[in-house]
Amino acid sequence: TLANEAGDFKLGCISLWDTTDNDADGYLASDDCDDNNPEVNPGAPEIPYNGLDDDCNPDTRDNDLDLDGYNS
Description:
Blueprint: E1 8-11, E2 14-17
Antiparallel strand pairs: 1-2
């Protein structure tokens, strides 16, 4: 592939930027963990117990908010 993690493309001396935003939520596909769902993006609040990584941060707890080691 020609792209790096940031969505930058370089072909010879020409650089291009990936501006893909499939769900039109204002976050590029390269930054958005689900670019087909506008409710899921790095700026979204995490909604507990919905089974989604709403804020694109795997460290945010979703199913074990009481930290007892067991999911809801």
